[in-house]
Amino acid sequence: MSKQYDAAYFQRWYRDPALKHQAIGGAARLARKVALTVATAEYHLERPIRSVLDIGCGEGPWRAPLLKLRPRLQYLGFDSSEYATARFGRSRNLHLARFGDFEYLRPCAPVDLLICSDVLHYLDTRELDRGLPGLAELCGGVAFLETFTREDGIEGDTDDFKRRPAAFYRERFAAQGFTALGSHLWLARRLRFGTSALETAG
């Protein structure tokens, strides 16, 4: 990897007040994403979520707001950053793995909520295609696959950003059995037959 996800990277893009207008982070914005994903997963599962797998989790910022909403859920995170997993691995249950490792890696049973936020558009196609089937197998409810495309107005971290068309991702997600729900949310294959026609985006 040419890009280094070290302490300086996370400080710059998540906490630097000088980059507030471009920053990835923001507690209020993240809280809204978490509330949206939890409510959507529970709507389709018809029960509270119990398990979350966060792939490309960075320092694990989703963990605290998730636990605030559902204190008993099991959170498990994976990231390719040696810094993040060494610094927060024990306290936040984060582990070291690249996205492509999910070609074979099955660290848990299928989860109620799978998160892969702001990751896929930085991967080369070969690694993306290796790991994506694993995400489909590990998602038993809803996936939040926040991904940006060349049709989007991108600000912030554009280093190694892959300017692919939206159709590139739609086709790959659909091939793995995901059904679009809108707002970066995708329904797992096992639940798609329980939805009505206008609940899905396609």
Automatic annotation (TrEMBL):
InterPro entries: Methyltransf_12, SAM-dependent_MTases_sf. It comes from the Bacteria. Pfam families: Methyltransf_12. One of its GO terms (molecular function) is methyltransferase activity. Residues 53-138 form the Methyltransferase type domain. Keywords: Methyltransferase, Transferase. GO terms for biological process: methylation. This is SAM-dependent methyltransferase. It comes from Lysobacter capsici AZ78.
